[in-house]
Structures
1.
Amino acid sequence: MEFSVSRKIIVALIILAAISIYITFTFNSCLVSNISNRVPKWRRTSVVNEIPLIHYTSSVRVVSLLEGNETDLSPKYKLFKEQGLRPERQLPEALIIGVKKGGTRALLEFIRIHPDVRAAGSEVHFFDKNYHKGFQWYREHMPPTLEGQLTIEKTPSYFITKEAPRRVHMMNLSTKLLVVVRDPVTRAISDYTQAVSKKPDMKSFENLVFINGTVGSIVDTSWGPIKLGLYYKYLTRWLKFFPLSQLLFISGERLIQDPAIELKRVQDFLGLKKVVTEKHFYFNSTKGFPCLFKSEGHSAPHCLGKTKGRSHPYVDPLVLQRLRDFYRPFNMRFYQMTGINFGWP
Ligand SMILES: Nc1ncnc2c1ncn2[C@@H]1O[C@H](COP(=O)(O)OS(=O)(=O)O)[C@@H](OP(=O)(O)O)[C@H]1O
């Protein structure tokens, strides 16, 4: 009898437990389904996914390596990208500061063949016209480089800009300075040729060289093409800020006759391995100038553009002689200052 009572109690307890389990389960499922139905569809994705998304978008900016004002598609640059290297823009360590019409473009195009050199393509005019824009602006105009690569820029007007030596010194007192110089008489004619190509109604060279326009009278040193040939004067300013050993003078004449010799001097001066050699050049008889077998931008042989190596107008030999006599003492002074006899007539 006792046994049957306790059996009834156990059965009753089991039934009670089963009922309570059923009620709890049903209630909870209703609750869960209710909550999920109230949450808008766009929120029903996993919260775990949202965290990294927000994190990446807010803290990591995906910047194209080509971002900036220079679109650099050079083979050297593409190679860096392919290798997963991150080049950065640096202020130049070397500058081609002049002289205008000396052969500065040729020098830049020749030296930039070197794998350890990267150059700003166009003249940046930072130390003369754009100085107020600041060094950050200047850096942004430089090409991206890898560690160990040298950044170079050329703006020939730096040589004659009064404030340029102090400004370059302020940027980096170790800046290496390259100056391509050329016989000031030929340089003046080259300068005039460029000016007359833009303004065809200009007076003749002979007319502009002399103060009252007559051959044999006083040379007009206020006329830009003449004034710029007084190299000693501009060099004096640079030597107030830089030792002579930090400047390399390249002969514009030899850069045409034997570019490899001048390029050897340039590579030594810049502390570069001798990579650019005679193998890179050939003489193009149509152009009348040395040209490159290949370079950064071209894989085929090519010469500098039409504005380099223009034919000069005929100039009266008397005027030429008068100008040579005028420049001689100033050239001598320049030879003494640099320790180089450039052999100008
Ligand atoms: N390889 C080669 N090809 C063409 N031209 C050459 C070369 N090497 C030196 N040059 C001489 O460079 C002169 C132009 O000088 P710049 O480049 O300094 O001119 S500029 O100041 O940048 O306008 C340019 O002057 P012009 O002959 O009066 O045109 C050339 O004589």
2.
Amino acid sequence: MIVAENLRKTFPGRGKDKTPVIAVDDVGFTARDGEITGLLGPNGAGKTTTLRMLYTLMSPETGRVLVDGVDVAADPERVRRSLGVLPDARGVYKRLTARENIDYFGQLHGMGAQEIAARTAKLAAALQMEDFLDRATEGFSQGQRTKTAIARALVHDPRNVILDEPTNGLDVMTTRGLRGFLKDLRAEGRCVIFSSHIMQEVAALCDRIVVIAQGRVAAQGTPDELRAATGEPNLEDAFVKLIGSEEGLHA
Ligand SMILES: Nc1ncnc2c1ncn2[C@@H]1O[C@H](COP(=O)(O)OP(=O)(O)OP(=O)(O)O)[C@@H](O)[C@H]1O
């Protein structure tokens, strides 16, 4: 379970405009085990910055993050062991094959060769990676790179999974496969959080949606709760009302 409380992050102004950018402002939500939680918001809303604070890459100016009850600021090492992260920059190692990328992360987590091999086989099957598992990742398509980065993030079998725009740039079939994979993670009782700027993406998968606009939580709840709160029977209309624009409605 991941709990975010009162998170705030400001970046100094750069270039001519020295006005600081308030990227995240008092963001709070709870992502439960056995559920998929979606952070939904238009470009620049603060999703990536929020996720970076959840996965220990950035410290919040105010507020705190608890992962399975452990304060991220107090024990980041322990938190990292229980997290699997797909960052916005996928960053797979080009000279290594997909399998070697996964293997390397397994070794960093202190796993043994047999354990890594078994886990790689399971993930490669679930993500349909067998065709390209032993190819060097240089020249991989976006979908192949994303799958490699997801498998690598999950090699140590983490309880909590954070994915930054996992379906960005993927074709329809790959997206469908990935949705099935995320549902399997949920069925295994894991806590899954992902960000997206596409309403349909979030509506198709999420048990709870946190709508973020201009660094703040505009609304949060189940799809039904969001519809009820806005008085809009259609989630798409509810989303437009909540963020005040039609950005992100079209896949
Ligand atoms: N390192 C940084 N330095 C300065 N400004 C930043 C930095 N990182 C993010 N920002 C700003 O903070 C705001 C939120 O950015 P963030 O990347 O979190 O949004 P996002 O919701 O993930 O957007 P997108 O969907 O476009 O990826 C934006 O205005 C962005 O320009």
